[in-house]
Design goal:
about 475 residues, alpha+beta, five-stranded antiparallel beta sheet, four-stranded antiparallel beta sheet, 18 helices
């Protein structure tokens, strides 16, 4: 059609509408009538040679892919004018009415991306013809890579949406690396957010923890929105990550005591983090809030495994002694977001109420969640006496008991839930309050949440500022 109307093929592809003008149609008809015999009708089939296969495509479909359309246009430019004219869809003569011929062209595409699989590439080509194609989560990486190579934008975004909805411990690393490779910021952000919520409750019990890249782990640990059940749980998760990296053949999560024994069995000349080949891990462990680990048996564990530099442990111990001698006052927290002690509740829709008792320098608090109805929840913390009915004796069996009537606390309660691929966040914002034992003074502000998301990741962060 371009040849008959006297236009260049590449210009026509940029503006196909020019072929629909009356002037262009009249010129095309005149050129056809001038021929002594009609050109037989032919459909164009473009054979794509790729990945060791030959795929038969048609121009109207392959133009959804920028890569294939460029290859096709380049092939047209390489053809003679006569060959180009043979692409005209004109009426066949009476003798050839039932024997329409087919014009065939061949283009080739070389792919070096190892993420592109034959199944993924075939699925991507299938999307050129069908708007709805079933796609498995196991194959989506191959389809995404194929869509990137083909520059098939709508399919690429469909794959990204599917990956965001299907994040799990088994695929979080591969999906994150794919997001980085193709510079897809929404996918990267979704992976980081998912890991902030699930590093401890899910990845901390999975062998897939081994595959988490160090740079991603560092970023998640530094996030103020990181969810953890306690500072000790976060430490255990990070120790497990190191253990799995050192024991590549391990295919099962070890018992906690077995993991501690392994670290204890290493060189006694220096602690683990002081060894030359392990110093790159120091920034990861500096992200931890070891001052939030206060129980004696846990502090003894830190010393026994010979993992941390002695200076770190001395600083933690000195902070604890200072707090005890000062009636609970913690060392001055310059940044609440990075130094507050964290505790968490993972509140599922099946829960009607859930509570946990926490102890800090002789002060006892109950953190509590209540489901009011199908989509309404309330979360708060309150100070309790060690003599209250129902108080667990194990909470103060070997610990301190403070008799101070009031305790100044800076706290924040935050709840997060996933709804339709978007994270909802609810927060009290940081609040400074004096907690006593009676009336409203023993209870924090209530965080009220209205959401259909489940589960809810609820974080209680607090410090004990210096009392006036």
């Amino acid at each position: 059609m371009s040849s008959s109307t006297g236009t260049e093929p590449d210009e026509t592809l940029k503006d196909p509408g020019r072929l629909c003008t009356p002037k262009a149609q009249n010129k095309l008809s005149k050129n056809l009538k001038d021929k002594d015999k009609a050109i037989p009708s032919r459909d164009t089939v473009v054979t794509l040679e790729c990945l060791g296969f030959k795929w038969e495509l048609h121009p109207p479909q392959l133009f959804q892919s920028e890569t294939l359309s460029k290859l096709y246009v380049a092939a047209l430019k390489g053809s003679s004018v006569r060959e180009t004219e043979q692409l005209l869809p004109v009426l066949p003569s009476r003798k050839s009415r039932n024997t329409a011929l087919v014009k065939k062209m061949a283009i080739s595409l070389k792919i070096n991306d190892p993420q592109v699989t034959k199944i993924g590439f075939a699925t991507a080509l299938k999307h050129l013809y069908l708007s709805q194609v079933d796609m498995n989560l196991e194959d989506v990486l191959g389809v995404l890579a194929s869509a990137h190579i083909l520059q098939f934008g709508s399919l690429f975004q469909k794959c990204v949406a599917m990956m965001v909805d299907g994040l799990s411990p088994s695929n979080i690393t591969n999906f994150y690396l794919a997001g980085c490779k193709y510079k897809e910021e929404p996918l990267i952000a979704a992976c980081e957010k998912w890991l902030e919520m699930n590093l401890v409750p899910q990845m901390g019990r999975q062998i897939h923890l081994r595959k988490i890249p160090k740079n991603l782990l560092q970023k998640v640990l530094m996030s103020p929105r990181l969810f953890t059940l306690s500072e000790l749980h976060l430490l255990k998760t990070l120790l497990l990550w190191v253990y799995l990296h050192l024991n590549h053949r391990t295919r099962a999560i070890p018992e906690y005591e077995a993991m501690l024994t392994f670290f204890h069995s290493l060189s006694k000349k220096s602690c683990f983090l002081d060894q030359e080949e392990e110093r790159s891990l120091i920034p990861l462990f500096l992200s931890l809030r070891l001052h939030g680990i206060t129980e004696g048996k846990d502090l003894d564990m830190l010393r026994r495994i010979n993992f941390f530099p002695e200076l770190w442990l001395l600083q933690v111990t000195a902070n604890h002694y200072h707090a005890v001698e000062s009636g609970g006052d913690m060392f001055p927290a310059k940044d609440f977001d990075t130094q507050a002690v964290r505790f968490g509740l993972l509140f599922s829709q099946e829960c009607t109420n859930y509570s946990k008792m926490i102890a800090m320098y002789g002060f006892f608090f109950e953190i509590k969640g209540i489901r009011n109805d199908a989509t309404s929840y309330s979360f708060y913390m309150q100070r309790v006496r060690h003599t209250d009915t129902g108080f667990p004796s194990s909470a103060c069996e070997y610990g301190l008991i403070s008799l101070r009537a009031e305790r100044l606390v800076k706290y924040e309660i935050r709840a997060q839930a996933l709804v339709d691929s978007r994270w909802q966040e609810f927060s009290t914002s940081p609040i400074v309050q004096k907690f006593r034992f009676t009336g409203r003074t023993c209870k924090s502000q209530v965080l009220k949440v209205q959401t259909v998301g489940s589960p809810l990741y609820v974080s209680f962060s607090f410090t004990f500022p210096v009392s006036c």
